[in-house]
Amino acid sequence: MIEHKAEPGWAAVEEFLSETVVRPNRHLKHAVASAAAAGMPPIEVAPNAGKLLQLLVRISGARRVLEIGTLAGFSTIWMAQGLPEGGRLITCEYLPKHARVARANVDAAGIGHKVEIRLGAALESLAALEAEGHEPFDFVFIDADKENNPHYLNWAIRLGRPGTTIVMDNVVWEGALLDPSLDRVNAPGIICALEIMGKDPRLDATVIQTVGSKGWDGFALAVVR
Q1: Phi-psi region of 106 (alpha: psi -120 to 50; beta: other; left: phi over 0)
Q2: CA distances (Å), 184 to each of 1, 15, 175, 188, 191, in order?
Q3: Which of 49, 140, 187, 220 has its CA 20 to 30 A from that of 56?
Q4: Spatial separation of the C-alpha atoms in residues 10 and 181, rounded to whole Å
Q5: Is the pTM of this model over 0.90?
Q6: How many CB atoms are located within 10 Å of the residue 12 CB?
Q7: What's the angle, vertex CA 93, arms to CA 109 and CA 123, rounded to 5?
Q8: What is the extent of the structural domain holding 84?
Q9: Is residue 13 one of the residues assigned to a domain?
């Protein structure tokens, strides 16, 4: 596992941008604090990235959002706040403790009625969604175990429709996409998913590098053709 380190200047700029432009509300700040209090890893998206997700949900006109990887519900709240009235977000979380913290956070933020948390292995939850015959999702955010990124990407396409927006987080991973030996567990899944994005005729995609409090990383953005 790679240790993600942020240069002091990166974190300081991110904090300035978050407080000056993004300005996360008290419910979002509480979600981060509650995760720390529960001993959860500080791997939620940065506030500026969360706001980007919210804006992408709005710009895409999404009414149905799928999230793979809930943690304490920080990104969940950002995206749910971008949904219109009647919008729905389904998020998949493996650990019961994380799901309980996230449930409390989304309820406290006043968007609990928009959010359903599916507990269990994400691949099983995704298969269940297909079997249940849900309407296609308009927006999918992938931020879970990187080993399964190729599978999550395939499910995002299957559960989406032409025009569905897909965002996959943590795709640069401190440069491990160029040197898989840096993280033999996570890097292969990240690389495979990126290769699929570049070759699969069902997708049109790009990748943006980022630096900040989470170190050197990036996200992929794709649209289902």
Answers
A1: alpha
A2: 8, 32, 13, 7, 11
A3: 187
A4: 26
A5: yes
A6: 13
A7: 140
A8: 8-224
A9: yes
> Residue 179 and residue 154: Cα distance in Å, rounded?
24
Distance between CA atoms of residues 178 and 167, nearest Å: 21
Of 178, 213, 181, 195, the closest CA to residue 2 belongs to 181
**Is the Cα torsion angle 173, 175, 177, 179 positive or negative in sign?**
negative
With respect to residue 38, please indicate whether it lies within any of the assigned structural domains: yes
Q: How far apart are CA 208 and CA 194, in angstroms?
A: 12
Q: Which amino acid is at 212?
A: G
> Given CA atoms 49, 53, 58, 61 in this order, what sign does their dihedral have?
positive
Cα separation, 42 vs 26, whole angstroms: 18
92 in a structural domain: yes
Residue 3 counted as domain residue = no
**Which pLDDT score, from 0 to 100, does residue 98 have?**
98
CATH number, domain containing residue 112: 3.40.50.150
Res 109 pLDDT > 80:
yes
The domain tally of the chain equals 1
Question: Are the C-beta atoms of 82 and 54 separated by less than 8 Å?
Answer: yes
